Amino acid sequence: MTPPSGKITLNDAKRYANLGVDRLILLLRRRFGEADLKEFVSQPGETVLRHF
After folding, report:
1. CA angle 31, 32, 38 (to 5 degrees)
2. What values do phi and psi take at 9, rounded to 5?
3. I want to staple 32 with a disulfide (CB 3.0 to 4.6 A). Which of 22, 25, 36, 38 is the partner?
4. Cβ neighbour number for residue 26 with a 10 Å cutoff
5. Is the pTM for the entire model greater than 0.85?
6. Residue range 21-41, pLDDT digits in tens
């Protein structure tokens, strides 16, 4: 499933998991500079993945 753009929180991920979603596909919807791209890639890992 591809969630709406924006940051994914742990609560968002838990809601999707409770609905039976086992994979989230994060989609770049605009061009990013290097710093923004690093944030886009690292934020879900730091806030969501480490809890699963």
Report:
1. 145
2. -95, 170
3. 36
4. 15
5. no
6. 999 898 887 777 888 888 888
